[in-house]
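FAQ

Q: What does a record look like?
A: Structure on top, sequence underneath. For example:
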């Protein structure tokens, strides 16, 4: 009996040398018949077969395998949009991304490509998969980075406070964990996917890989890593599960809401209580310069939160929108007077800057924490990444709506 080759964190051994019908089909012929035409560019049957086989080797769940054709359509749209705006990446960037991907399986890119080849996956399939991801991330950041990075200090403070920081911060043990969050519209589907991911995420390295591939949380680009937090800050439905873990251990999926399941990796534990950071009362507010009262009133009916202003600002000159977090004592007198009458989400249009009307919105009131006492870098990055994911989803929806997609 032949022994299947080993590829850490992947399922090559289950498929590569064990008489797979998929492998036999791929090896038999390269079916180049077009299955979908996207803006004049064909997606062939061979490309679909290759992507399905590649994802099978990654232990992808059935939902991803069934969605291969849609994923390839979106890849075509990403590539076309990058070409339209003149964006390209060099071979060094692609190679680095391939090495990073292969490194999740403790292999070099050359070793990883070799193992895939044994299973019938071409080097071009792996390269295209990685390169398209790199160019899409570059494209999204180039277009939306300004909006994505407009995470204010007060937003970071509120996010940190949800876990551990603030006047009523819990004391006691602290934990450093990673998360994988699975969300689906149907609870049964979410549970099934979470259970399948649990069979893959069995080590810290494979947990990192699974988080990047499957998690719907804003932490996915960091492999699910969270900052230090007080154990008592965790929701009651997961606190006991996390508390039972020792460093390096991974929990079974836990239901945390309708259609939402989570898994946790314990990275470190600490017994010491956290220190309460100092802070001052502050306001988070946005100013958008518009042409006059009529435009301001029209805009008032279109936005509900400060985040809605970013979309409106895309139609206006650069610098029209500013968002600021400041202690109340540092606010300009005219802005302080207007904001004093507002609740979060409310708007004032009583100020002018030259010929422009100031659309002034209060985003939030809260405590602006001393940034020297709090580990905030990962919290800010998580918020920025989450915002960029939302922009990317909207961007793709626009591209799909404008695309010419035909099935021969």
């Amino acid at each position: 009996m032949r022994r299947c080759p080993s590829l850490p964190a992947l399922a090559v051994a289950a498929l590569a040398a064990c008489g797979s019908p998929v492998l036999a089909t791929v090896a038999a012929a390269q079916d180049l018949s077009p299955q979908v035409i996207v803006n004049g560019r064909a997606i062939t049957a061979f490309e679909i077969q290759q992507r399905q086989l590649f994802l099978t080797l990654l232990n992808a769940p059935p939902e991803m395998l069934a969605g291969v054709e849609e994923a390839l359509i979106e890849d075509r749209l990403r590539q076309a949009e990058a070409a339209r705006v003149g964006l390209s990446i060099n071979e060094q960037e692609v190679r680095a991304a391939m090495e990073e991907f292969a490194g999740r399986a403790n292999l070099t890119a050359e070793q990883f490509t070799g193992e895939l080849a044994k299973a019938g996956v071409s080097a071009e399939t792996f390269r295209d998969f990685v390169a398209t991801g790199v160019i899409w991330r570059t494209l999204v950041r180039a277009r939306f980075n300004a909006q994505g990075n407009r995470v204010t200090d007060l937003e970071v403070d509120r996010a940190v406070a949800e876990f551990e920081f603030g006047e009523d911060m819990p004391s006691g043990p602290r934990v450093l964990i990673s998360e994988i969050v699975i969300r689906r519209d149907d609870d049964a589907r979410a549970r099934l996917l979470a259970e399948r991911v649990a069979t893959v995420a069995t080590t810290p390295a494979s947990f990192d890989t699974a988080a990047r591939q499957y998690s719907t949380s804003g932490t996915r680009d960091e492999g699910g890593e969270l900052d230090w937090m007080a154990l008592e800050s965790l929701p009651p439905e997961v606190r006991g599960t996390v508390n039972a873990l020792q460093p390096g251990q991974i929990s079974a999926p836990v239901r945390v809401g309708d259609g939402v399941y989570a898994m946790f990796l314990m990275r470190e534990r600490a017994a010491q209580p956290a220190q309460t950071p100092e802070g001052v009362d502050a306001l988070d507010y946005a100013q958008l310069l518009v042409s006059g009262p009529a435009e301001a009133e029209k805009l008032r009916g279109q936005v509900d939160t400060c985040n809605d202003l970013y979309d409106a600002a895309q139609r206006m000159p650069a610098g029209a929108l500013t968002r600021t977090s400041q202690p109340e004592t540092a606010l300009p007198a005219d802005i302080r007077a207007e904001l004093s009458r507002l609740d979060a989400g409310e708007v004032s249009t009583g100020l002018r800057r030259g010929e422009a009307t100031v659309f002034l919105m209060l985003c939030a009131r809260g405590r602006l924490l001393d940034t020297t006492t709090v580990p905030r870098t990962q919290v800010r990055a998580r918020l920025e990444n989450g915002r960029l994911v939302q922009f990317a989803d909207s961007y793709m929806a626009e591209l799909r709506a404008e695309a010419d997609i035909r099935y021969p």
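Q: Is there anything notable about this one?
A: The chain has 15 helices and eleven strands.
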